[in-house]
Amino acid sequence: MLNIIKVSNDQQFNEVGAGIIAGLLQSNPRAILGLATGSTPVGVYSHLIELYKQGLVSFAKAQSFNLDEYIGLAADHPESYRRFMNEKLFNHVDIDLMNTHVPDGTAADPEKAAQEYTRMLEDAGQVDLQLLGIGHNGHIGFNEPADELQANTHVVELKKDTRAANARFFNSIDEVPTHAMTMGIASILKSRQILLMARGASKADILARALTGPLTTQCPATLLQTHPNVVVLVDEAAGGRLS
Ligand code: F6R
Predict the structure, then answer these.
(1) Is residue 166 predicted with pLDDT exceeding 90?
(2) 38-44, long-range: CB within 8 Å, 24+ apart, which pairs?
(3) Which residues' Cβ are closer than 6 Å to ligand 1?
């Protein structure tokens, strides 16, 4: 089932997104969160920190698994997703860092590290809420458009357009890693609930294709149509082509 929530400004976007996560933690303090990076969830994480400071939510018993990480970036690299998560959320709330998981971008054997991440996810049980952004090419996590998609956490070569889109965070596109480790499509679809978030007019076309187009591995987000419980949080611009 697809539930679309359209909001009219950033503040509402952040409040609604954070409210969904906080509501889950209030009813299930031991919730397993699947987390995303990128620019879309930043304000949602900031608002969650506010709710934490107001005593309205606690992460003390929660666990988290992030979707992805760049290969080759150490945890303390300014653009690593581990550092992003620490700075944008974890360092400001009461989550135990030991209970936060981000794929290891510097593992000597990335394929083995990917298998290990899959095992950790399976051992933890079902993710209760998976946050997702969407790439302009329809990627979710770093599952890029391809003839075939992978089920579990794996190493992926990033598409040129993905590296170009993310170059805004680096000095130049040459500094953007060429590979990443990402949860696979099956790992994402196993989650009890998915919160797909998109903001801005540049996401309108791909979001409409993802939610209403034919299922295809060339737009991995179309596979979200097979999930029984997806909430789509959009602003007016990103939701402009959704009825
Ligand atoms: C981030 C991730 C990516 C982003 C997507 C959108 O962990 O897996 O799929 O969600 O690239 O990025 P933004 O939010 O920067 O537009």
Answers:
(1) yes
(2) 38/133, 39/133, 40/133, 40/197, 40/198, 40/199, 41/17, 41/131, 41/133, 41/197, 42/88, 43/10, 43/13, 43/14, 43/17, 44/13, 44/14, 44/17, 44/18, 44/131, 44/197
(3) 36-40, 67-68, 133-135, 139-142
Residue 68 annotated as catalytic: yes
- Look at residue 129 and give its three-state secondary structure: strand
Is there a contact between 117 and 150 (Cβ–Cβ < 8 Å)? no
Instruction: Please tell me the distance between residue 134's alpha carbon and the centre of ligand 1 in angstroms.
Output: 6
Task: Enter the pTM of the model.
Answer: 0.97
Q: How far apart are CA 231 and CA 243, in angstroms?
A: 15
- pLDDT surpassing 80 at residue 39: yes
Q: Which of 116-120, 130-134, 165-169 has the lowest mean pLDDT?
A: 165-169
Q: Which of 144, 154, 227, 235 is catalytic?
A: 144
* Amino acid residing at 167: A
Q: State yes or no: pLDDT of 34 exceeds 90.
A: yes
CA distance 228 to 225: 8
Of 134, 197, 206, best ligand 1 pocket probe by most atoms within 8 Å of the beta carbon? 134
Gap from CA of 27 to ligand 1 centroid (Å)? 27
Identify the structural domains of the chain with CATH numbers, from first to last: 27-192 (3.40.50.1360)
104 in active site: no
